[in-house]
């Protein structure tokens, strides 16, 4: 199986405004209106022709890709093995997912039927900025304040906020996004602990520790690890129980990094200070949908959203104009790279 090491074409190799005759056809699934504009503006520059649809890829619409060896898909809906088989029957050999993570597609099954799955990279600043925003909002009780002022109650809350410079922040996952978070934390003067399952260069001023030590010593824990069998429920019931009283959890990685029932229990019992979650276990089919006036099918999410010290957003930390440009451009470039390699096999 060949995986792409994420690159940032948009940041390191600016594309020149020339037009190349189309040599590659790509079917783009789950193409939002702003993505469509970018895909269509970049297509002639990068020498590709496109078929786009706002529909997520399924076995029923896989025929749209017939005649295309490459497809670009979004991360918003899991891609079933049935869908992969249908794409393969349509002639697809390469799936470029417009995300860093692969957890919505079975890459091993894809490999077993002769397909390659590649991911993209985008500016880590989008998620890093959002992470710091969530961290600061949590420490200052922003959700309760906004709720009160929206109801025209302008009295200050009874609980004072906390300052980052007085705290220890534990960063779990020190890849591109985790490293960008650490860079931002330097300006606040807080102590920073870091943990990563992969060996990483030692960062000056940052203490690298094992995960249990990080959990026990941190006032704020922020998660930036990829989701895998090894990292599933990385912050489990045992580790949540060992967190400092009043500590905060920030998650802009993947929902299943946290054992959600254990987190809910710790919050409801008042053992933790709060949480800010851009991703939630079981978010599929909920985030990116309009569920106004309907009962949430995820009871844990419903309980989290009822709490005044829990912030929830619908997996949008990455959602900036800069990250969109990177994502679309790199998805196309990944397809071109695969096509070039395919033709030389």
Structure notes:
By secondary structure, this protein is an alpha/beta fold. It folds into 2 domains: 9-122 and 321-343, NAD(P)-binding Rossmann-like Domain (Rossmann fold, 3-Layer(aba) Sandwich), CATH 3.40.50; 125-312, Rossmann fold, CATH 3.40.50. The chain is 35% helix and 14% strand. The chain is built from 12 helices and 12 strands. It has helices at 9-12, 33-46, 81-89, 107-112, 125-139, 142-150, 176-186, 211-217, 237-241, 260-268, 299-306, 321-343; strands at residues 24-28, 48-52, 70-73, 94-97, 116-118, 168-172, 191-195, 207-208, 220-223, 248-251, 274-277, 310-312. The strands form 2 sheets. Strands 8-7-6-9-10-11-12 form a 7-stranded parallel sheet, sandwiched between helices. It has a 5-stranded parallel sheet with strand order 2-1-3-4-5. Helix 3 links the parallel strand 3 and strand 4 (94-97). The longest helix is centred in the C-terminal third of the chain and has 23 residues, at 321-343. The two termini are 15 Å apart. 40% of the residues are buried.
How would you concisely characterize the structure shown here?
This protein is of the alpha/beta class and 345 residues long.
Domains (count): 2
Which secondary-structure class do the elements indicate? alpha/beta
Q: Rg from C-alpha positions?
A: 22 Å
Mean pLDDT, nearest integer? Answer: 91
Strand arrangement, major sheet: 8-7-6-9-10-11-12
Which blocks of ≥5 consecutive residues have pLDDT under 50? 1-21
CATH fold-level assignment of the largest domain: Rossmann fold
The rough form would be described as globular
Number of helices in the DSSP assignment: 12
